[in-house]
Each structure stands twice: as structure tokens, then as C-alpha cells.
Give the backbone structure.
Amino acid sequence: MYRRLERYEQSIFVSIFCFADKDCFGVCHKMFIVLEGIDGSGKSTQARLLADFFESRGILFILTHEPSDGIIGQKLRSLTSRLTPKEESRLFLEDRVDHVKTVIGPAMRAGQHVICDRYYYSSAAYQGALGLDPFEILDHSRSIVPEPDVVFLMVVSVEAALRRIGQSRSAGFSIFEKRKNLEAVSAIYDTFQDNVIKRINGEQTESEVHKEIVNWLNLRGVCA
Ligand code: TYD
């Protein structure tokens, strides 16, 4: 006769409860929020705007990113020559496991929202663009690290992204190589169909994108 509420139903219940009772900190649903998209899609800006929003409301959160600031993440960021796609993929996964263990997990247990700039969808899209199977990467990652509650995927054209990043951030790539790479990455992001993914038109203004993210979270019980 009774069934367990689905997660989104629980969240709607929490939203209604929060709306009815402003003193709702005890029941806020803590979210593991991921921002994804190609370079130049605006995800890091949106991660910061969301962090500012939480801060201004006194909502507990951490803002973090991948590659992480851990030893493996630093190694990934400082690589001067390319590894094989498999080696790259293995290192990103090792970094992620460490990141979950030392940063994401403890924050969630401490009752904080987690805003994470890139997660395993980046590995699937970027290392997938180098020839690995994106869906194998997703399946393998899911068996090892926790799934996010929501993934805001910023959708922008490669043209718009290239305009935003300019040539300065294409270190190591010619503009032609960068375009080919982003096209391949973008095509893989387009194939992701998980329920947790919420696609957002990243070509709107910064504040329109931010509003869309905040509205979505408010409806699911993240207290405003
Ligand atoms: P990014 O967040 O865009 O870096 P920055 O903050 O310096 O702009 O991420 C750095 C690069 O790492 C980006 O081009 C995507 C790549 N990347 C992968 O290839 N695989 C992964 O799993 C992750 C997390 C990132």
C-alpha cells in the first residue's frame, strides 16, 4: 500500500516543509552538486556564483574542483607531456578517489553541501575524446565513487567556448587542435542521458544561468 518516496519526491516534501517553516535547517537536504561542461562553458564561474549565494544565505557548503588540490591532482595539472589516454584516465580516477576520501566525503558527513567543479563526467568526455569508451568510464566510476545528486551541464557551442577562452588558455594546443578536441568532448557530453543531469543553456547571461541553477535547487529543498 505504501511505497518509499523517490528522492525527488522527498526533496519536494522538504521544499514544502521549508516553505512552511523558515526554521528548517534541520531538514535541509544536503546536495552533492557537480558542474560540468567543455572548457569555456562557464561552469567555474557558476560554481563560484553558487558558492557566493550559499555564503550570503549562511548555508553550509564547500566549493571544490577536479583535478583536485591533492597530490595526484597537482601532478595532473603540472604535466608537461601527454600520457596515454589509459594512464590519464587512471590518474584522474585515482585523484577522484582521493578527493572523495579526503574532501567530498568528510564535507557530506559534516552536513555541508558540496559544489564540485568537474567530476567523472569530465573523465568520460575528455578521456573518451581520446578514444576510450565513455560509458565504460562512467560505469567503472560509479562502482567506485558516489554519484552526485545533480549535475548542471553547461551547454555552449564550441564557437562560443573558443571565443571565451581565447588562445591564451589553449596552451599546448593549436587553435585548430583545440577546436577538434572541444568538438569531440562536446559530442560526448551530448550523449549523456543520466537522470541526475540537468542541461543548462550556457549561452545565456551569467545571471540567467545562475538564476536557473538556484531555482532548480530551491525546488528540491536546498534552503534559500
Ligand atoms: P578545468 O577545470 O577546466 O581547469 P582550469 O580550472 O585550469 O580551467 O580542468 C582542467 C582540464 O582537465 C580540462 O581541460 C579538462 C581536464 N580533465 C580531464 O581531462 N579529465 C578529468 O577527469 C577531469 C576532472 C578534467
